[in-house]
Amino acid sequence: MIDWLIEIDKQLFLFLNGLHTTWLDPVMFFISGRKEWIPLYAFLVYLLVRNYRWQSLYYIAGIALAVLLADQFTSGFMKPFFERLRPSHDPEIGPLTHIVNDYRGGSFGFASSHAANTFAVATWFFLVFRTKYKTITWMFLWSSVVSYSRIYLGVHYPSDILVGAVVGTVMALGVYWVIRKVKKDLWKGVFG
Q: How many CA atoms lie within 13 A of 85 on its CB side?
């Protein structure tokens, strides 16, 4: 059963990775970057501060913790534990993989830290702003595009992305629950 799933994962990867064009290569390489999204992150912090003033510190600490946990769980635990080669390093599939700018990533790719981190951010801001800004659901489109860029670049299988997205979502949900509880208990302790 597991061999069948791995084979489907590889075939799906080859299909999705094969959907490349010359003009899209630099776009996907840019989308996959981390520093390129600093203006978006700054805007999201601005939204938190504007809407929650001093209480935004809870939410800023929460998103930082959710992303840190998601990143460390995928990079620090899962990748060294599972040791699943990235497509770009897999001797069987590597020669068939479309690589952009000779970027191959580290040796292991299960699960995707990009997917975990971006889905943690999307989930967090959905939870915080779901009643104020309906458009915040666009964050999930952003995290999906960033995640797909990893397949496009040849450094992640679809299952790496899927599991990374689940890890990020779960970390954000967990941290959000803890932050809300701590905030509520502190508020009750001070004013109760």
A: 9
User: CA–CA separation, 100 vs 34, rounded Å?
Assistant: 16
Angle of CA points 108, 118, 127, to nearest 5°: 140
Examine residue 1 and state whether it is found in any structural domain, yes or no: no
pLDDT in tens, 78-119: 999 999 999 999 999 999 999 999 999 999 999 999 999 999
The pTM assigned to this predicted structure is 0.92
Q: Is 13 among the domain residues? A: no
Domain that holds residue 135: 56-186
Beta bridge partners of 108: 85
Any idea what the CATH number is for the domain that residue 153 is in? 1.20.144.10
Residue 44 within a domain:
no
Beta bridge partners of 85: 108
**Between helices 38-52 and 113-129, what is the axis angle to 10°?**
20
Q: Torsions phi, psi of 85, nearest 5?
A: -60, 145
